[in-house]
Write a structure and sequence with these properties.
There is one protein chain. The chain is of the alpha/beta class. It is built from 29 helices and 18 strands. The strands form four sheets. A nine-stranded parallel β-sheet has the order 8-13-12-11-10-9-14-17-18, sandwiched between helices. It has a four-stranded parallel β-sheet with strand order 6-5-4-7.
């Protein structure tokens, strides 16, 4: 091996020892083949006009993953070689004249004002990452090359010292696309710059296309989250503050966490059945009475009316959406033997629902998180945008090995939107008029979010849309993770949208399995509920022993921190006004504003206030309304922007204090 390889691999081992250990078989194969003079990739190396090394890819698009061991690597090489002889390509990885200048032009597209991180999806011999590392030494850089042999080819050719010395470097190799995308979850999708060239991904087009598709969904999800925040943040604040006392009164779902695993034996065989409100639920409802005997029924709020109408009270009801429309799914209903799972931002009437017990999951919103951090956590549940995702995650965290889903259509089988008798349908009939019929509501639901055709589990066409696709993606990735833990997910309604990692079953098959071990499952269900109550008592004893503060003291502390924020923002506004009126005071004012900003960042209430603080998009729009003379003044522009932020912070804090009063 050459000196470039020896230097690079030594640096790589020092920086990423665990990763190199994972790649030891691939590394050994690469070095052995190179020593024999058999370069294990369809790359032709040559010298660019400026003297730098470059290469041409001579192969065909391939989905061959990185080699797992010597034998597999050899097979991969042979497969690539054969493919080349059948349909050869000649794709230059870099410029034949000046690869460095080409890379500099490429990374000039990156601006730290617009992006927080850079991702190189394939990188050839590494000229792009080298140019980026030099220009952005502290900006996060993620290098994705799923086939480690192509990574080694780069390390064997070009000096990677600048890349391997980069302050915020991540390498991704031998991972599935979903895992690669999940590594980017620490950044907002729209703030990530993706560098991807055809020549750098042709050797694994399947991986690249799947990664880009999943990343596109992340962008859609972030946009939906921003839109939702802008529309509902005030409602979430009002609900959360109205429901604060329940954080002290109600148990958390954590008492059910891993309960079946605690029981041991065959308890984990106890099936959980998730009941969603899709039209296909109608096919399962006749079996619910028998299923309840030996399964745990978890019903989402939208399906409750139909399930109760069938004479069945589910074991659990899940409602976590704060909207009033969702609270109406429980209106005029009661289920005395059910446990209601909700969160502190739910519409207040939800907590008056007549049931056996109301338990809470950890809040997704900063007010609930603030109080839970002091009064004790309730227990996190996954949230994929649909209440069905939360219900599924509850079943998973209980420790069951088999989760069955019914009515989660994520589409419109038979052009229907919901099961007959659901609150959605009843509301459409109640509000229908001559100029706006119930059918109009149905058409709006069908066509309201970029409708498209997909396939159900039987291979038949089903109408779905963009929103449903995001939910399906959540289930696909999370069910894959659950499978690795030995937890299987099945659908009882094959007319639903087909989702990878979810198998097909039927109510009849499930009942047949249950009847074979009915006595065992009935006992497991009884023990499951009893063990949860024991866990609750144990948790309360631990809380008393740890001396958790009272709800009243935490509430007073919360109010005090908000009042402190209000005072700081008031001082900031006054200082900004001084600087605007007297330009000679700008430097002095900026120093004082820095002190105020540090206090705000250390405030306990700042996260809660952020809920009703404008989003970046809203803040940019408000900044655009500032006087042009101010925005064109280099000295005063930051002061005007600071004044805008302090003003918005004061509005947010006042809104909280008014609700608390």
């Amino acid at each position: 091996m050459n000196s470039t390889w020896n230097t690079n691999i030594a640096l790589f081992k020092k920086r990423f020892p665990a990763l190199l250990d994972m790649l030891k078989n691939d590394l050994a194969f690469f070095e052995e083949e190179c020593e024999k003079g058999h370069f294990p990739l369809p790359l032709e190396f040559l010298q660019a006009k400026n003297g730098s090394p470059t290469a041409i890819y001579r192969g065909k698009p391939s989905a061959t993953p990185g080699a797992q061991d010597k034998a597999e690597a050899a097979n991969a090489r042979l497969a690539t070689t054969n493919a080349t002889s059948e349909s050869p390509q000649a794709l230059p990885l870099h410029s034949k004249y000046n690869p460095e200048r080409e890379a500099e032009q490429l990374v000039s597209q990156f601006s730290r004002n617009d992006f927080d991180a850079a991702v190189f999806l394939g990188f050839g011999l590494g000229y792009g990452p080298l140019a980026f590392a030099e220009k952005n030494p502290s900006t996060p850089m993620i290098l994705i090359e799923n086939n480690p042999l192509f990574l080694f080819a780069a390390l064997n050719t070009v000096d990677f010292t600048k890349v391997l010395s980069h302050q915020a470097l991540v390498f991704v190799t031998k991972a599935d696309p979903a895992t690669a995308v999940s590594l980017l979850s620490g950044y907002r999708a729209e703030r990530i710059k993706i560098f991807s060239a055809k020549a750098h991904t042709t050797h694994d087009t399947a991986f690249a296309s799947q990664f880009l598709e999943l990343f596109k969904r992340s962008l859609q999800k972030d946009e939906i989250n921003t839109n939702t925040l802008e529309k509902f943040s005030r409602l979430w604040m009002k609900n959360s503050l109205a429901n604060l006392p329940y954080l002290a009164k109600c148990d958390g779902v954590k008492k059910y966490r891993s309960t079946l695993l605690q029981l041991g034996g065959n308890a984990t065989e106890l099936p959980f059945v998730i009941l969603a409100a899709g039209p296909s639920l109608a096919a399962v409802i006749p079996h619910l009475q028998k299923l309840k005997e030996c399964c745990v029924l978890v019903c989402v709020d939208t399906a409750l009316h139909a399930v109760l109408k069938a004479g069945v009270e589910p074991d659990f009801i899940v409602l976590v959406d704060p909207q009033y429309a969702c609270a109406r799914h429980l209106e005029f209903l009661k289920s005395p033997t059910s446990v209601l799972i909700t969160e502190s931002a739910a519409y207040p009437s939800v907590f008056r629902f007549e049931c056996r017990e109301t338990v809470m999951c950890s809040s997704l919103f900063p007010i609930g998180q603030y109080f839970e951090s002091r009064l004790g956590q309730k227990g996190k549940l996954g949230a994929g945008g649909s209440v069905a995702t939360t219900a599924w995650d509850f079943a998973r965290t209980c420790g069951t090995r088999k989760i069955y889903i019914a009515g989660m259509d994520l589409g419109f089988p038979g052009k229907q939107t919901h099961i007959r008798g659901s609150q959605f349908e009843e509301r459409a009939h109640r509000t229908s008029a001559r100029t706006h019929t119930a059918e109009s509501d149905g058409v709006s639901s069908l066509l309201g979010a970029a409708p498209t055709l997909a396939k159900d589990y039987r291979g038949n066409d089903i109408l779905t849309d963009k929103r449903m696709s995001l939910f399906a993606w959540w289930f696909e990735s999370n069910c894959a993770t659950a499978l690795k833990d030995g937890q299987e997910t099945f659908t009882l309604t094959p007319q639903s949208l087909a989702i990878p990692n979810i198998a097909v079953s039927s109510p009849e098959e499930l009942l047949k399995e249950c009847s074979a071990k009915k006595e065992q499952l009935v006992m497991a269900k009884k023990q499951f509920l009893e063990q949860a109550e024991k866990n609750s008592v144990q948790q309360k004893n631990e809380d008393e022993k740890n001396g958790l503060p009272s709800f009243e003291s935490v509430r007073d502390e919360f109010r005090e921190s908000l009042e402190n924020l209000a005072e700081l923002s008031k001082k900031g506004l006054a200082l900004c006004q001084i600087a605007i009126q007297n330009r000679t005071k700008v430097q002095e004012v900026n120093a004082k504003l820095s002190e105020i900003d540090a206090k705000i960042m250390n405030s306990k209430g700042k996260e809660a206030a952020s809920l009703v603080f404008p989003t970046e998009r809203q803040l940019a729009a408000k900044a655009g309304e500032l006087p042009p003379s101010a925005m064109n003044d280099a000295l005063l522009k930051p002061v005007y922007y600071s004044r805008l932020i302090y003003g918005e912070l004061q509005k947010a804090v006042r809104a909280y204090l008014e609700c608390l009063a």
